[in-house]
Sequence to fold (160 residues):
Amino acid sequence: MPKVIMTQSSASLSSGKLFTWGDGDKNRLGHGDKETRTVPTCVPSLIEYNFHKVACGHSLTVGLTTSRHVFTMDSIVYGQLGNPLSDGKVPCLLEDKLVNESIEEISCGSYHVAALTSRNEVYTWGKGANGRLGHDDIEDRRAYLGLGLITLASKRAIIG
Fold:
């Protein structure tokens, strides 16, 4: 019988700093080690950033800073970190196409992420099984790929 591992927990307290706690397996907490944290602990490599949104999946934590930067951390198994060069040991800043975008919202499932821009464009990456990324296939995406413009009704459905 498989073991179920509780997912990590995250909080962006009034300070705007990112705190994580829980099971540190697979470097999922962003502290650069696999240690379990039983109390909220500030992620040291992200101390210079202020976060205002955080989403957690089974093997994924994604954070959006007040300056609209997107950071991911945890397992690299399906490409859910959005950067094929990341080893998953420390938080990964998503750059490339997203560096010039104003990311407004982030959302994630167990192993995939959606990011919505101020221009109503959606980028998705991670595990593509069952078409969950919206690219009309079931391929995993290790780098983010745009879906293009969406309508306001679709925006509410994607972001929740």
